[in-house]
Amino acid sequence: MSRNNGMDRRQMLKLAGLSAAGLGLTAAGCGSGSGSGGPVTIRHSWWGADDRAKKIQSCVGLFEKKHPKIKVKTDFQQYPDFWKKFNTQAAGGNPPDVIQNAVTFLRKYEAKNVLLDLAPQAEKGNLDLGGFRSGLEKFAEIDGKLLGVPVGSNSMALVIDEKVYEKAGIAPEIGWTWDDWYAGLRKIRSGQNVAGDAGPHGVMYLYDLILRQNGKAFFTEDALGFGEAELLPYWTEALERVKAGLYADPNKVEQIKPASATAKGLSAGEFTWDNFSVRYSAEGRSSYGLAPIPSTDGRKTGQYLGSLMLSGTARTKHPAEVATFISFMTHDPEVARIMGYDRGVPATTAQFEAYEPSDAPSKAIAAYETAIADAGVLEPITPHPAGADVIEAAFLRISADLSLGKTSPKDSVKQFFSEAKTALASN
Amino acid sequence: MTHIHTSPGALATGGDRSAAKRNGPGGIAPPVPPKRRDSGENLAGYLFMSPWIAGFLFLVAGPMVFSLYLSFTEYNLFEAPRWIGLQNFTDMFADPRWRQSVKVTSWYVLIGTPVKLAAALAVAMLLAQKRWGQSFYRAAFYAPSLIGASVSAAIVWRALFSDDAIVDRTQKVFGVEVGGWIGDPSMIIYALIALTVWQFGAPMVIFLAGLKQVPRELYEAAEVDGAGPWRRFFHITLPMISPVLFFNVLLETIHSFQIFGSAYIVSNGSCGPADATLVYTCYLYEQGFVNSRMGFASAMGWLLLLAVGLVTAVLFWSQKRWVHYEEGGR
Amino acid sequence: MSLLAAAVRRRGPGALAWHLGALVILGVVLYPVVWTIGASFKPSAEIIGALDLFPADPIGDNYTRLTEGIADIPISTFFLNSTYIAVGSVIGVVLSCSLTAYAFAKVRFAGRNVMFAIMIGTLLLPYHVLIIPQYVLFQKLELINTFTPLLIGKYLATDAFFVFLMVQFMRGLPKELDEAARLDGCGHLRTYWSIVMPLCRPALVTSAIFTFINAWNDFMGPLLYLNEPDKYTVSMGLKMFIDQDAVADYGGMIAMSLVALLPVLAFFVAFQRYLIDGMATSGLKG
After folding, report:
1. ipTM of the predicted structure?
2. Which one of A14, A340, A354, A404 is most buried, counting C-beta atoms within 10 A?
3. Using CB atoms within 10 A of its CB, is residue B125 exposed (0-12), middle (13-18) or buried (19+)?
4. Which CATH class is domain B96-322?
5. Do C260 and B151 touch (CB under 8 A)?
6. Within this chain, domains A40-152+306-355 and A156-303+381-426 share the same CATH topology
7. Closest chain B residue to C274, measured at CA
8. What phi and psi values does residue A271 have, to the nearest 5 degrees?
């Protein structure tokens, strides 16, 4: 019995030792002391994929070299997971210090006092607000607070599989209409037995453009800018097109997630942000290009410059360092050369001029943004109300349910407006 | 968190007749009837019990009361809870996604648990025969119960059931063109059910232990009387192992209600497609942590507690009719 | 097969059917595991579509990929975190549950019956009702993004199942032993530590292993409570892999899945007697 006892104790000791070792390691791992002189650690989270991760890592390395007293820890997730996690973190009281941000989330987190007002930091000289292209520095100004700094501008576009489009003899140009686009889909289907589009009816930002083409918008200041009368015909038509094979097989699209349907050859094109097109050639086998957004009247596309931003969070213990980092990421020419157009066309002139695109996708993005700017189709952006993110997710999910044949267009529309109402009320 | 992911293995291996017996018709009996009490014993008892008492008060009872309060409020973690009465509950009943989550979970429990237990019992009866290699098979069949709840298993499942993978190809051999189950809202739930059935080893081990206790003489006597294998099964095996069966049904059912991780990972975090894997916990998580509706999520939690309580009560009540205890009881 | 043949010769055709049946089940049960092993040596593009279990030219790329880590975090970080939580949980459960079980089994104190009934009640309690309020509690205590929420319950004997298991076991111990100890003047603490604990070893080991495996596999706890990747457990590391590399690096993800299972499988191989045999029989004694 005494031997048993000894065994137990020895095992216990071993376990205790192990856990002590673990404790030591963890303690060493998260030493983010902010005493004077010691290095300060800030945390930067963003959404994206592996290719962006490598670029951001190089930028962070560069930053740390120039600012030896600031360490930056980074992490990233897919877009929806990123926001799930961020919401939990913000509510839990320890969000990352710096986040990648988008216009949809500004009001939501401003209302909850999650975001850091960067204006005081600009006054103190920690954040440089000079040299932004076409007034972009005002992009995230809400009620006199500066809630984010744009890193690059982007715009909605149609990414196309050039080989399929070429074979079908379709050459999209600025000024083409939805009818032209639809004719193209049918041609591609009959000629090459491929779906022409991944299914645009779940993309909130595209529907926003369609509504704008017709004098409305997805959001007003605090509500939805459209009703069942608009959405029902849109989704009814979409379901017919899914059934006709003009939009990609939703079952397959579901399974290859998070990969893109067009990159995986399930469709000849899809609507997305122009800067995303950088990913396609890495993921897919064909060659990919950017086509303009079709319009209703041959002129007005409803487009605006969107932008990814960097925002600080209000609870950060190191606002000055946060501002320094954001300033570096938006102005340093070397950062522009590393990032390219990954997060859109650089927002500051210094970075815009520092990067000369050499690869085809980036050249295409530059050409695309220049073309739509020259065409004069750009409009000012409308701010999104709090709850817009939940509505965007619902729009995407319900449209997928519709495509998969789980609900009728009528029920889908009803469901969407009911969820939107809840989201606007509770956020 | 301590209640999260107790693997069926963990719960089930303690499953035994004594457990069922203890919870039997006589109600829950204390381990030893108390005879003598004195203040020294009381003090010692409370000292030994102090971690449990603290845990119960601060991690179970207190949170339950708090959650009951929250279920009548609107609370987003950022601002103070606001009393809204029964609104969360009326919203819930009017919410088609909530109804969908009830449907998905019920389906999962109603199909998954019986199939899993049937598989467990069938294999246990096979293994109950003393043969060479018996203990090896028992160990091998048990292994999935330990790894089935992991993220790894869910990742592998997603791969095996996707388009053009093994399951899809096998179907095609039989001329069934379904495509991958993962993208098909009517099929993906069966991929999840397959994942839980794959873990039949834990209840199997308990059935085996129960089967070993059945006296051989009963079978021999029945054979002399000319009873065939089916009659022997229904008239000897089933009644004799009914306490074990009861225990397995109880634990597997309660456990199945709590599925989250595998649904979340197999559906790539969407609990889709088309909400086809929107199990109750997934929806509670989404409403609470993604949409910041902590009050609504609390109300969901309480409603499930009531539902599971009801199912448990019905099971306990029904056991009078079909669970046979060797001694005592009735 | 010759063993099979020998078995058939000895035991007759019933044995053949038995072994065939068992082998078929074995094939179905082990297929996913064997598939994973094979797939981890295949190039990413071939993993889903290829029907061969093992590739003609196995490659080690998927494993070398793991040494690069995920998002600049070495894989070893996830394993250390998981080990820390799992070992910490084991110590907590073994100590706190055995103390509670001792009180239930060996001490006669007022209110024991009521507490025992409550403890059994928590065994059947669905955790849904606790997710939100516990989260709010730990948020108010500013314990989010620490390991405390994942560990504290283990030190406060909230794992009713293990308490129950140990009570069962302690009741099975010969009464004469602790009565003799009491006569020799041992207090409860001495009796608990020097007599009951050593004798309970099988129950303690079983509880320890299950606690380790549950903590290792836990997904929801870390998902809710851990925010920074360098605190992530293996489950969350795998989740990161899905998020970030599902497109580019299917092979790496499968390899990581397998590596994540290794500790569990190792415990199983080492302790399967304890897990299956010991438990099934020790339970029946009660």
Report:
1. 0.89
2. A404
3. middle
4. mainly alpha
5. yes
6. yes
7. B13
8. -90, 130
Of B86, C170, C223, nearest in space to A81 by CA: C223
Distance from CA of A13 to the nearest CA of C (A): 10
Of C159, C130, C151, nearest in space to C231 by CA = C151
Which pLDDT band, with edges at 50, 70 and 90, does B320 fall under? Answer: confident
Classify B248 as helix, strand or coil. Answer: helix
> In the CATH hierarchy, which top-level class contains the domain C69-285?
mainly alpha
Contacts of B137 in chain C (CB under 8 A): 22, 25-26
- Answer whether A296's CB lies under 8 Å from A177's CB: yes
Name residues 324-353 of chain A within 8 A of B (Cβ).
Answer: none
Query: What DSSP element (H or E) covers C149?
Result: helix C148-155
Rounded CA gap, A352 and A346, in Å? 5
C250 CB neighbours in chain B (<8 A) are: 159
Q: Name the CATH topology of A156-303+381-426.
A: D-Maltodextrin-Binding Protein; domain 2 (3.40.190)
Of A305, A284, A189, A276, the residue nearest A241 (C-alpha): A189
Query: Which own/partner contact pairs does A81-89 have at CB distance under 8 Å and 24+ positions apart?
Result: A81/A47, A81/B269, A81/C243, A82/A45, A82/A46, A82/A47, A83/A47, A83/A389, A83/B290, A84/B289, A84/B290, A85/A45, A85/C227, A86/A45, A87/B289, A87/B290, A87/B292, A88/B289, A88/B290, A88/C224, A88/C227, A89/C144, A89/C145, A89/C227
Instruction: Report the neighbours of C using a cutoff of 3 or more CB pairs below 8 angstroms.
Output: A, B
**Domain spanning A40-152+306-355: which CATH class is it, in words?**
alpha beta
